[in-house]
Design brief:
Two copies of one chain form a homodimer. By secondary structure, chain A is an alpha+beta fold. In chain A, about 45% of the residues lie in helices and about 20% in strands. Chain A binds a DNA duplex (30 and 30 nucleotides) through helix 7.
Chain lengths: ~230, ~230
DNA sequence: AAATTTACATGACATTTGTCAGTTTTTGAA
DNA sequence: TTCAAAAACTGACAAATGTCATGTAAATTT
């Protein structure tokens, strides 16, 4: 498998694209390719990271455990997303846990490489800033959604988000298959409530299911529901 | 009034402290001091900013309007907080609206000054990154709180947060006085629910009120409530 | 000071969501 | 293939929260 960063297509999606040829070579030399099986954790909440993880393939959920033991999935990371960047930059322990949703390959890039480049290449720093600024905006949007939309609306949005981000297969089912529990942990509800709403959506012809798989049948209808009709 | 950034104490709290003497002088020369009356807006949601606002005095609420017309207060900005940074860096319109909660003085720093410094001084860029990394972590925590804590718990947290951030007067009332409606918009609930919970807290001896003013009477009790007892 | 507006407060009720208890289905290992 | 475990599902009920209606207090204007 080709593992030189210089020829890695994934890099185009993240802040590493601001690196010079030489810097990229350094990253490439210091990185370690790892494969992670579905369900395995890449790092735990509260862990001190020695570097960041660049997702090459597969999808990871970044989640946080609350006091009462419930998991909340804050975001999904796939192709090109760099995980652990926040912790490494702030020099803090992670506040999220990363677990593979399906089989993954990730590149571990040591902390020093990142920090050195940040301190010497303003372009890279600004590029990272832009990404983080975007994430921050997204986070604020999620906060408002959590506070002002119903569980139904949030779940509808989740389906559309998955379709947009990961696409659907030839039969119209979402490429990324999540468990009902994972859906519940994304929209912030109990799995029973989540399951009930899925049944209701199915009855209304908004979605279709086949085992764990979910497909969007009536995108317009879902959009109306999200808008509050 | 002293308006040189070089001698502004507020600067110590934000990323401007990473600037060199010369850079600071440039910021100082390009900035404009503005005073904002309680209730006035500093910028609106969706506006394109020509610069950032550094809060010198007073408190501003940063909020977002949802589709159904409800306001959600995402964060409060006081002493030393730089508002609009995210939008300027990402070169996007603002996603939040900033309104003065009490009389304020803010310094407007033009976009160019910020961008130039970002591109030439990696220390500054990294410092901004650290701040943004911190904000992002906070935002993630809020998301999990919104999804897993009750309105009562969130309101209790809000009171403690205000005490910690802005202190209390000699009679034990919070220095920063918010309306019931503003509290509701922070914790993400209806103002009626908010008022009801305030009454309940008062009955239980957790807090005391005097008109709009609110004071914490039993911090331990509030903490227990937040923890779920 | 009177009038008007705004914020605060409370009751009654509907809706949403969570919890518990149990059944069925699916999945994965032996 | 069979069995055990996990995930999906359903019903019944309780708790949390939102909404509407209405009244009262406080602040602001005239």
């Amino acid at each position: 498998m080709e593992t030189r960063c210089e020829s890695c297509i994934v890099r185009q999606y993240n802040s590493l694209r601001a690196l010079s040829k030489d810097e990229l070579k350094e990253v490439s030399n210091s990185k370690v390719l790892k494969s992670v099986k579905k369900g395995e954790s890449i790092f735990e909440e509260g862990e001190k990271l020695d570097g960041v993880y660049c997702v090459r393939d597969g999808v990871s959920k970044l989640s946080k455990l609350s006091a009462n033991g419930k998991e909340h999935i804050v975001k999904l990371a796939s192709n090109g997303v760099i995980m652990g960047q926040r912790s490494v930059i702030a020099d803090e322990t992670t506040h999220l846990r990363a677990v593979a949703i399906n089989d993954m390959t990730v590149c571990f890039i040591p902390k020093n490489t990142i920090i050195n480049t940040l301190n010497t290449n303003p372009n890279f720093a600004v590029e990272v800033l832009r990404h983080m600024a975007h994430d921050l905006k997204e986070a604020d949007n999620v906060i408002v959604n959590m506070s002002q939309k119903t569980v139904k609306q949030r779940l509808g949005e989740a389906f559309l988000y998955l379709k947009k981000s990961y696409g659907e297969d030839k039969d119209g089912f979402l490429n990324l298959t999540l468990s009902r529990d994972e859906y519940a942990n994304i929209v912030g509800t109990a799995s029973e409530s989540c399951i009930r709403i899925i049944s209701e959506f199915k009855k209304k012809g908004l979605i279709k299911t086949a085992g764990k798989k979910i497909g969007i049948s009536d995108e317009k209808g879902l959009l109306d529901l999200i808008a509050g009709f």
